[in-house]
UniProtKB/TrEMBL annotation:
Swiss-Prot/TrEMBL catalytic activity: D-ribulose 5-phosphate = D-xylulose 5-phosphate
Entries under InterPro entries matching the protein: Aldolase_TIM (IPR013785), Ribul_P_3_epim (IPR026019), Ribul_P_3_epim-like (IPR000056), RibuloseP-bd_barrel (IPR011060)
Binding site for a divalent metal cation: 33, 35, 66, 175
An example Gene Ontology CC term for this record: cytoplasm
Protein family membership: Belongs to the ribulose-phosphate 3-epimerase family.
UniProt GO molecular function: D-ribulose-phosphate 3-epimerase activity; metal ion binding
Identification of the protein by name: Ribulose-phosphate 3-epimerase
Textual note on the cofactor: Binds 1 divalent metal cation per subunit.
Pathway: Carbohydrate degradation
UniProt keyword list: Carbohydrate metabolism, Cobalt, Isomerase, Manganese, Metal-binding, Zinc
Pfam families: Ribul_P_3_epim
Catalytic residues (positions): 35, 175
Length: 217
């Protein structure tokens, strides 16, 4: 499977957001990871549709929208209209996860399911056929710059084994606390889409993207 790097713009300097996205794009970022937080499911409020439509002009890379939003089905059409290519919803936030995933695909987008660190993989049992990507949170969602949760490694490994056993090539995305130390470990466990916030936007963006991508070869 292809390894892909998805810089999380939550760690970018919002004053020059477009320029920083362009820099990450040109350095070789595969996706742009967009953390939408509602102040309900997670304590923070980040940004929403107007920001996503503006930054759509900065890059042609795939917009990987991670909705940390209660009842996210309320906003699927809006995010599709402002340029999302993939929408990931938290299983914990959806009363009708199966229906929500179908709706995302009907909008022509890739559908993702996110699980918090404490949420069991069994939440995926009956929806894998409707899921293009599983996002395993490797920190508790809500903030950038937190420490990687060690128990995630076993969870990634177990999920990859289950997917392989079912002959599924579903992407496994990891998000939170990914840096030069944790990256090789999550890759080895079976993750292939790598979100990195502070490890990309903290310091020299171009150098960071290139170094992380090199480690993913
Ligand atoms: C956390 C967000 C992450 C976050 C990752 O709730 O979903 O995408 O920005 O930041 P780092 O890579 O700094 O842990
Ligand atoms: Zn995220």
């Amino acid at each position: 499977m292809k390894n892909l790097l998805a810089p999380s713009i939550l760690a970018a300097d919002f004053c020059v957001l477009g320029e920083q996205i362009r820099e990450a794009d040109e350095a070789g970022a595969d996706y742009i990871h967009i953390d939408v937080m509602d102040g309900m499911f997670v304590p923070s409020i980040s940004f929403g549709m107007p920001v996503v439509s503006s930054i759509r002009r900065a890059t042609g890379k795939l917009f990987d929208v991670h909705m940390m939003v209660q009842d996210p089905e309320r906003y699927l059409k809006d995010f599709a209209a402002c340029g999302a290519d993939s929408i990931t919803v938290h299983a914990e936030c959806c009363r009708h996860l199966d229906r929500t995933l179908q709706e995302i695909r009907e909008l022509g987008l890739r559908a993702g399911v996110a699980l918090n660190p404490a949420t069991p993989l069994s939440y995926l049992d009956y929806v894998l056929d409707k899921t293009d990507m599983v996002l395993l949170m490797t920190v508790n969602p809500g903030f950038g710059g937190q420490a990687f949760i060690e128990s995630s490694l076993e969870k990634i490994r177990t999920l990859r084994q289950r997917l392989d056993a079912q002959g599924l090539e579903t992407d496994i995305e990891v998000d939170g606390g990914i840096n030069r130390k944790t990256l090789p470990r999550v890759l080895e466990a079976g993750a292939n889409v790598i979100v990195a916030g502070s490890a990309v936007f903290g310091g020299d963006i171009c150098k960071n993207v290139k170094e992380l991508k090199e480690m993913m070869k």
